[in-house]
Amino acid sequence: MNNVGYTPEEPIAAIATALVPSAIGIVRVSGKNCIELASRIFSRPKALSEAQGNSLVYGWMIDPLKSKESNRIDEVMVGVYRAPKSFTGEDMVEVFCHGGVSVVTSIYSLFLANGFRPAERGEYTFRAYINGKTDLTKAEAVKEIIDSKTDVSRGRAAGRLSGNLFELIDSIKKRIVDVLGNIEVEIEYPEDEENIADCFDTAPLMDVKESLERLGASWKSEKLYQDGARVVLCGKTNAGKSSLFNTLLKEERAIVSNIEGTTRDWIESYADFGGIPVRLFDTAGLRKTDDVIEARGVELTRDLSEDADVILYLVDANNGIQKEDIDYISEQKNVPCVLVMNKCECNGSVVIPTEGPWRNAVKISAKNGIGIDELVSSVKEIVLGDASQDKEHAGLGSERQKNSVQEALERVSHALEIASTGDYGLDAVVQDLEDALDSLGEVTGDVTPDDVLGNIFSRFCVGK
């Protein structure tokens, strides 16, 4: 990692809240002597410099270069945190000021003019990591929470932030260490077993392998809860796509009309499908038209369909499914489709077709909200597939973690293979298990190359 901007203990400052008009703004500083430096631009310097950790001090931020009559910037509360009991593990100060853009930027500029430099992206969390206040799984979970789009994705990230993934990794490492201890005893005091498998009990190592397999498999669903899925609403004109779009969003985003061809372009928004963030697209109705603009909209509908994770194909239940509908769904070779029989409030006797080129079929009333839960469950079932939905165990939070766990699994699997075949000695098993420990250490940050650290923390926002 390029440490030019990441200099431990150097006083840094950042605006920690969004730079928009609001009730409160926060400017955060951290580093060696930051409390003393902050007291020089505070109306009550002694009160601030002598304040106990985890306390608040009232006063004004002042510009020492201006006259006493005009040096006041804003009336504030200052939070004081003393090392090591702070987020970064260093001395820290947080200024809680009024949330006007001018006020916040003025206080931030005041810090920069009085001994502080601008913080780099993720530098506060980086300092927390190097000072032992967090491990990499918790650090990455911070960004996950910030980026989460649903309550479920936030909850899963919160589990990692609370340490459940670290604890699971730690328990697996301890089991590997126990096996290594038994092997080391055998190396020191060898007996006359005919093969390696008889030298130590491989059952604990098999348990480790199963734990790593289960943990590695968790990434598929965790990634889905983080990144979400693309769901495209398709169908003929007036099938009710825009009505369903609004119903799923729980707001009026798309224009609804009984005039055919109202939607000529696509619009999108995020929706919550049972905790999975879905990028939902409302599209132009499928039909032949001489209108150049509408025809272009139909082309875009077809393009979006090709890139979708799931297509919701709507059919007006009053007209029934027709050959053109089946033909369009059949063309979607690589994208699963859900046949959605809409407007069922007008025809309660609608029968859902049991066979066809679609994955699932449901009947709904977008207008009255009937069948929406079943539709959401159907989409969720498709996008999750065989992915684990185990909420009781920790899951992986990043591709980096998945790769490291996969490497550990390969080393443990190889160690078991050696033990069963007897092709190599116990030293080879030891090497495999030590490599597995290193890979797991990369997950938590016990063993992590600098370039990996740089990649992780550079994705954070400034001030975090």
Topology record:
Blueprint: E1 12-15, E2 22-30, H1 34-39, H2 45-49, E3 55-62, E4 72-81, E5 92-99, H3 101-112, E6 117-118, H4 123-130, H5 136-147, H6 151-161, H7 164-188, H8 203-227, E7 229-235, H9 241-249, E8 267-273, E9 276-282, H10 292-306, E10 310-316, H11 323-331, E11 337-342, E12 360-363, H12 372-384, H13 399-421, H14 426-444, H15 450-457
Helix pairs in contact: 5-6, 7-8, 7-14, 8-13, 13-14
Written overview of the protein:
With 464 residues, the protein is an alpha/beta fold. 43% of the residues lie in helices and 17% in strands. The chain is built from 15 helices and twelve strands. It has helices at residues 34-39, 45-49, 101-112, 123-130, 136-147, 151-161, 164-188, 203-227, 241-249, 292-306, 323-331, 372-384, 399-421, 426-444, 450-457; strands at 12-15, 22-30, 55-62, 72-81, 92-99, 117-118, 229-235, 267-273, 276-282, 310-316, 337-342, 360-363. The strands form two sheets. A six-stranded mixed β-sheet has the order 3-4-5-2-1-6. A hairpin with a 6-residue loop joins strand 1 and strand 2. Helix 5 runs antiparallel to helix 6 (151-161) and helix 13 (399-421) runs antiparallel to helix 14. The chain is flat. The two termini are 18 Å apart. The mean pLDDT is 86.
